[in-house]
Amino acid sequence: MVIVLRDNLSNEQYHELIHFLTSKGVDFQEIEAGRVINFPVTREEEDFLSALKAFPQVVDVLRTTKDYRLVKEVKIPFEAAGISWGGKLVPIIAGPCAVEDEDKYLQLAKELKEMGIQAIRGAIFKPRTSPYSFQGLGRKGIHILGRVRKELGLPVVTEILEPRQLDILYPVVDIFQIGSRNMQNYSLLKEMGRQDKPILLKRGMSATYREFLLAAEYLLYEGNNRVILCERGIRSFEDYTRNTLDLTAVPALKDLANLPVIVDPSHGTGSWSLVSPMSLAAVAAGADGLMLEVHPEPAEAFSDGCQSITPGRLKDLLVSLQKVAGAVGREMIFESEEGHHAGS
Ligand code: PEP
Ligand code: MN
Predict the structure, then answer these.
(1) Using CB atoms within 10 A of its CB, is residue 31 exposed (0-12), middle (13-18) or buried (19+)?
(2) 113 close to 150: Cβ distance less than 8 angstroms
(3) Is the shortest distance between the CB of 202 and ligand 1 below 6 Å?
(4) Contact by Cβ (8 Å): 119, 333
(5) What pLDDT score was predicted for residue 335?
(6) What residues pack around ion ligand 2 (CB closer than 5 A)?
(7) Atom 4 of ligand 1, residue of closest alpha carbon
(8) Region 13-20: what's the mean pLDDT?
(9) Which pLDDT does position 336 carry in this prediction?
(10) Between 13 and 300, where is the model more confident?
């Protein structure tokens, strides 16, 4: 870490700072007399940096290391829900925004499984902007997720909103989703870090890469090593789309950390017609998976119908995705009318 000092410091001001460093037991070194002080990276704690910046003598305090560590040490690929994440395979999680009806959800699950989709999504606890909007089936949806998992053997990805839901969700979930709105809910992150099922962590809608990775760091710090990051769009000045899908996040996060990075173009764009092109772009950019909202009758969906594609469209998309995946050395496994495809 480097402390940059103000020009024309008085001797007294300079010694006040030196005294502070000495009193904190910091082993420092002056690089340019009275201008720059260097000290060990082991003291690069956020709060210490902040304390140093409180001195009027200090112009800036510069980090020389990143403050997340564990996200760089994860071994990938890893297995979650019987699927390999962060390797050659590009898995797809598809399904409606919310679980709405038992028969329809099971029917869709059957279709997705037949297509070779790796996991189904669907929330029973929905974090909605308005309290008047559909909040999800709640506890009534538990046995629906349980049936899909048991009867079809299709892995389930569903959102957990608060630690109190862990006990009832745990038996019916393969991968827990922590949504954008909860990316910085540190008590939820701590709780979910202490349980053993994998986590799909969605980027907060105004979170920087650092904040996103530090949220993942919470999960890892508590002992959960199976964390999948999901780029789902950020808030920007553009209001044509629901969010601005930040595809730079894919290669950037993969540079900064060693975690699988998947993309959700449904929330990322808010518009079904933009989902297919952005899915292709995501895979081209190196995404380690996709999360897609799929609904048999988008116009009848209780939530996010406008950004949901139909199973038919998904089928078409899979054909193009396979070509893009092959072009960038990745693999997508799905079933088509002509039979099994394991394209790479
Ligand atoms: C969702 O996946 O349905 C969802 C609410 O996503 P996000 O947390 O990204 O808004
Ligand atoms: Mn949704």
Answers:
(1) exposed
(2) no
(3) yes
(4) no
(5) 76
(6) 97, 304
(7) 179
(8) 91
(9) 64
(10) 300
